[in-house]
Amino acid sequence: MSQKITTFLMFEGRAEEAMTFYRSLFADAEVRSLTKYGPEGPGAEGSVTHAVFTLAGQEFMCIDSAVQHGFGFTPAVSLYVDCADEAEIDRLYAALSDGGGVLMALGNHGFSTKFGWVNDRFGVSWQLNLA
Fold first, then answer.
1. 2 burial class (0-12, 13-18, 19+ CB within 10 angstroms)?
2. pTM of this prediction?
3. Which of 38, 43, 57, 74 could form an SS bridge with 66, CB 3.0 to 4.6 Å?
4. Where's the PhnB-like domain (predicted)?
5. Rounded Cα–Cα distance for residues 83 and 32 (Å)
6. Do 122 and 82 fall into the same domain?
């Protein structure tokens, strides 16, 4: 088997909510596997032990950490999306920035005719580019 690299997202209780939200935004999206903590823990009952999902054919993994951490997501690592048209970039920018924060407003920044950078409501950073 050849080596494979997959983006792994660690949440603290909102993994399934994030996965559902992301799947609503991208075509060719599905949950491939999902397991949850039961009453025996160690995480909160019903939170995600481990999940694998795809967005636009790209595979991701996520969990709800059973341990509280002193860190979260940072814009130093972001998900980069080349959008096919203006309607797509506008839709994704609006949805992903809703409840999150804007790092770079959607516009012409010289290196791209239309680009925006946001943190979503879960803290995950997204760079959106009009291809």
1. exposed
2. 0.92
3. 43
4. 3-128
5. 24
6. yes
